[in-house]
Structure prediction request, 719 residues.
Amino acid sequence: MPRRRSVPTEIDLTDASYYFNRELSWLEFNHRVLHEALDSRTPLLERLKFSAIFSSNLDEFFMVRVSGLKEQVAAQVSQRTPDGRTPQEQLEAINQRLRPLVTLQHRQLEQELRPLLAEHGIHILNYIDLSQEQRFYLHHYFEERVFPVLTPLAVDPGHPFPRISNLSLNLAVGVKDPQTNETRFARVKVPNILPRFIAFPKDLQYHEGKPSIWTGVPLEQVIAHNLEALFPGMNIQEYYLFRVTRDADFEVQEDEADDLLLAIEEELRKRRLGGSVVRLEIQMGTPDFVRQTLMHELELKEEDVYEVEGLLNLRDLMSLLALPAPQLKDPPWTPVVPPRLRRIVELSPDDGFWGSDEGEDFFSVLRQRDLLLHHPYDSFAASVQQFITHAAIDPDVLAIKMTLYRTSGDSPIVKSLIKAAENGKQVVALVELKARFDEENNINWARKLEDSGVHVVYGLVGLKTHTKTVLVVRQEGDLIRRYVHIGTGNYNPKTARLYTDLGLFSCREELGADLTDLFNFLTGYSRQQSYRKLLVAPVSLRDRMLGLIQREAEHASQGHSGRIIAKMNALVDPIIIQALYEASRAGVKIDLIVRGMCCLRPGVVGVSDNIRVISIVGRYLEHSRIFYFHNKGEEEIFIGSADWMRRNLDRRVEAVVPIEDPEIALDLQEILGVLLADNRQAWELQPDGTYIQRRPVEGSPEQSAQKILMEMAQQQTGA
Prediction:
């Protein structure tokens, strides 16, 4: 009989010392992204990609998180976070941590990546490096394509300082009037409708007499070296680059909005103009006069200014990933067709017929048993996309209902829903208009769906609909059967090739009934408070997850083995963290695979010494959520759309599904095992908040989880 463990001494688990700050933890995540740009093992153009992602991430961080903290400071909010910081203290800590990272990023680009690119025949040149022929070409390019779209704006008593648009790149120009000998200030916006890097034609693709793969110049340099055309009769004294970031978050008062779609369109118009400026990036060496002028006009303090070396707006480096240099990129990956779907896909010609003479079709496969998909290793197009396409044309399908949080505007899924409505089926699409920075895209295709006869619903007041679910209702003889897909990722064919996500196909009656109830909750006035199988936020998910954690703690305290493995994007919720601490203290062994923010402090003696936290940052964005509980050998495992964050548990509609097929449960455990063994892209969180990258033990091989999962997928095909 197991021996009962001794009861740990009482500890205040709300103590601030047991928590990391959410914002600082996010910065550590973005540091891990930047490391992929620093790592010589990463292919060269992929290093540029990660540098671009680092910058893009930072833009959103300032637009949403930093702007929110600044608003709290302005409103004199003094409430402390679980780690004990006020909003002002968080801003100061962000500033201190971030500056060295930005400096590192720009220095590495200028001193390492640009020279390496040049060695491989890719030249991002400055004007001083150009030949006369190349300068002549750019002069004509400026006159024909750039000059007509530029608008120089003077700043003087008759011309107030212009409103600088969010994320725009600009030239601050000093011009001298030869008649009055007076120096004046002007602003020229670098137009974002033109390519950021201007490539030379084939006959000018060379540098220092040697042919190249690609040679080009940043657009702002083309403008800067032709400023006399914008200010004829004036003497150009100097020019300096700058870029602003504005508050771009907004909240819609849903209870006061008669039409949510129109209300969000109005807020989007405000976003384009931008809220208050929260960051100013300026070129290194900008004179103090220009710096102070910009700070004064934009109402900024010194801590809001970031002086950088070299190019500004490094998110534009992403465009260089399209260069024809496959040897400098990750090997191409073609997602595989899951073996159980292979024959169906082979039988699917373009004319819409998709079944065999033997009656094989997508639905017959799902009637045999549940099916798990793991993207991008498994093909999204041959599974989820195919499922919805088939449902749209199958004469026996009566209804299709699905939630859409983010998808591409040209998505085949949207086209299939339109086709289904045209075929007379009941089609419901729950569109989340409040998906941050995708609002405009969602509005556009929501209107297309409505125009085609699809019932479009915009969700619930006060809650974002984040769940990833599809319900297909089909007439089969005298039976009505429901088929479901419940996933961890968005129904977006583009991101399905870039993010790792999981999805479960099933025709289990209880899951079909649960999704029916969930859609009634989302589209009508249902107050559904219980579900047969699904864990649904904000109804039951928090309590159920806490119950599963506490059950492991009880088993461990009774002398049984306690084990939890959880994979997610972020772990922030303090109540969940406290439950994990209690489980650790009871003896439960806990492994957490948290890609981004983690506010839990592992390895604290007597509190979290049984908890290990790793983060995997690699070729694909780890987006899947998996929750495993040992349960004295009666293991339970779940997948779903929710992270362990307050917003997911309390302010969003989420769905997490239990895995009841034993083979799928084993597959998920194998995936977790592969991730936990990673020693290539895995980082381990230390008690002091730093992350240490894992390295192979001497004599052991390097194990990249994502590479291994690709190899496992290929083995299924016999390749």
